[in-house]
Amino acid sequence: MSQVNKDWALYYASLGWAVFPLMPKTKRPANEHGSSEATTDVATITQWWTQWPTANIGMCPAKSGLYALDVDPRNGGDKSFEALQTEHAGALASPLMNLSGSGNGFHMLFRDKPDTKYKGQPAEGIDGKHKGFIVLPPSVHPHTNELYKWLGGTLPTAELVASLDVAPAFL
Questions:
Q1: Among 90, 89, 73, 72, CA closest to 129
Q2: Strands of 134-136's sheet, edge to edge?
Q3: What is the model's pTM?
Q4: What does the alpha-carbon distance between residue 84 and residue 82 come to, in Å, rounded to a whole number?
Q5: For residue 38, what is the enclosing H or E element?
Q6: Given a cut of 90, is residue 117 above it in pLDDT?
Q7: Any idea what the Cα angle at residue 22 is, between residues 19 and 27, rounded to 5°?
Q8: Nearest to 105, CA basis, from 156, 63, 139, 130
Q9: pLDDT tens for residues 3-32?
């Protein structure tokens, strides 16, 4: 798994995604300053995953030109997501989603709009992740030991990322 996570971290960096290491099987940063040190620098990423070979992968959406909608059904996010979809006529669609290792939570990725101030919690059970971070596949979920996965096997590519819609203004 160790080489796999390093390879994925480097791949994400090649897409322009600023990544950083999380302690293995946690959401706690392994590096000193967490997401504020997220980078696309190959040498830094290689050093981190050499130091922490089984580290999970964190990504800072703002530094990556992205916005992530984090839906957590345990906290009512599934119902809130359905309500937002109904209220905004299906405006929440993204071809790039990852499932958390919890089995039912997910992240939807959008391009961000520079200088936009996003809500931290657009609805109950839904967090807007822009300045913070999300956990990327194939990281291991801290409570279930299950892997984070790309929904439907749709892997991020430069073309797919470039084609993402900008996060809707109501977020």
A1: 72
A2: 19-22, 56-59, 134-136
A3: 0.95
A4: 6
A5: none
A6: no
A7: 115
A8: 139
A9: 899 999 999 999 999 999 999 999 999 999
